[in-house]
């Protein structure tokens, strides 16, 4: 008698034929495989594609092939690298459930807590996107629309459809998305300083840590500012990044002479001293508001200041 197949094997342990759903259309093959086979080394994924183990509609393919709805994708057994279980994942899940600002078929909006990286990586066992994928295990598509620094809190978008991701990325490229941040800076921000237009360039310290600086050879960066509240030794300002460079708001505030309190990378000694005096425990930068329009209508997403930042303002600086 023929042996009965073991139906309890996981997809990663056997060949799987997967039909691409409409919401997954448009993704690159390599990116799709990295998402559906988390933990599998990138070298193994690219080797499988190169050797023809991965096929689209029975045909060999390249890593940059774009998937289409209805495509039949052959995925060979791909063994994930062994790794220690992520610590703190369950605690982050509970916090994120309370932090959901919007939950629709094509889009999630989260009020990201400070201290949570947007994705796992070197030195980070668990990130926002990995936690959300475990929470929404039935979703075949979940991708970050944009990023926030680990210490920055506030509104962040996660697409549940590839078409939604493409639309929102186009908005980000063409200034079709209005992003507003609140930050507490050292000193008295002058009312006439409405914007900082200074090119930014990435560089590395001797330790290998990556930083950003204002440099004539850098990429153009523009941030608009508005004073929200004046305090005795600090100013709460609203920052609107017109461009989307790494650490843009933080470096532009420093360049203007008013570093953000709690910024261990860019603040400097004087601001560090004020940070301690005021009881600021982390970077005082919060993605407060996000406005954009999709076919389903206009969106105005607002995340109020977290309690720890609001407490600093209530302290009567």
For this entry, give a set of tags:
Pseudouridine synthase; 23% helix; disordered N terminus; alpha+beta; Structural Genomics Hypothetical 15.5 Kd Protein In mrcA-pckA Intergenic Region, Chain A; 3 domains; ten-stranded mixed β-sheet; elongated; 317 residues
- Taking all residues together, what is the mean pLDDT? 87
**Uncertain spans:** 1-8, 82-86
Assembly category = single chain
Q: Based on helices, strands and strand pairing, what is the structural class?
A: alpha+beta
The total count of helices amounts to 8
Q: Report the biggest beta sheet as strand number plus sense, adding barrel if it closes.
A: 10 strands, mixed
Instruction: Give the CA-CA distance, first to last residue.
Output: 82 Å
CATH topology assignment of the largest domain: Pseudouridine synthase
CATH class of the largest domain: Alpha Beta
Form type = elongated
Order of helices and strands: EHHEEHEEHEEHEEEEEEHHEEH
Going by CATH, the architecture of the largest domain would be 2-Layer Sandwich
- The name of the CATH superfamily of the largest domain reads Pseudouridine synthase
The helical percent reads 10-25%
**Cα-based radius of gyration, to the nearest Å:** 23 Å
């Amino acid at each position: 008698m023929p042996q009965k197949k073991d139906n309890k094997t996981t997809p990663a342990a056997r060949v799987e034929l997967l039909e691409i759903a409409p919401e997954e259309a448009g993704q690159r093959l390599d990116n799709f495989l990295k998402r559906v086979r988390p933990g599998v080394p990138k070298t193994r994924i690219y080797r499988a594609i190169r050797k023809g183990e991965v096929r689209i509609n029975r045909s060999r393919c390249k890593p940059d092939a774009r998937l289409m709805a209805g495509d039949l994708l052959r995925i060979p057994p791909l063994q994930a690298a062994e790794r220690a279980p992520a610590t703190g994942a369950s605690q982050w899940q509970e916090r994120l459930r309370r932090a959901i600002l919007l939950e629709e078929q094509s889009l999630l909006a989260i009020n990201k807590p400070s201290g949570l990286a947007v994705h796992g990586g070197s030195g980070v066992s668990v990130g926002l996107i990995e936690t959300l994928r475990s929470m929404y295990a039935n979703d075949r598509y979940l991708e970050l629309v944009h990023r926030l620094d680990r210490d920055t809190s506030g509104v962040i978008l996660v697409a549940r459809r590839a078409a939604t991701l493409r639309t929102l990325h186009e908005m980000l490229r063409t200034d079709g998305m209005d992003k507003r941040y609140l930050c507490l800076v050292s000193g008295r921000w002058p009312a006439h300083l409405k914007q900082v237009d200074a090119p930014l360039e990435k560089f590395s310290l001797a330790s290998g840590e990556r930083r950003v600086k204002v440099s004539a050879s850098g990429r153009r960066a523009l941030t608009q500012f508005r004073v929200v509240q004046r305090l005795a030794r600090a100013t709460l300002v609203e920052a609107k990044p017109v461009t989307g460079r790494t650490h843009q708001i933080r470096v532009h505030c420093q360049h203007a002479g008013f570093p953000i309190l709690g910024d261990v990378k860019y603040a400097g000694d004087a601001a560090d001293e004020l940070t301690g005096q005021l009881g600021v425990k982390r970077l005082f930068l919060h993605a407060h508001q996000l406005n954009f329009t999709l076919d389903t209508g206009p969106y105005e997403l607002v995340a109020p200041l977290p309690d720890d930042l609001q407490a600093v303002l209530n302290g009567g600086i």
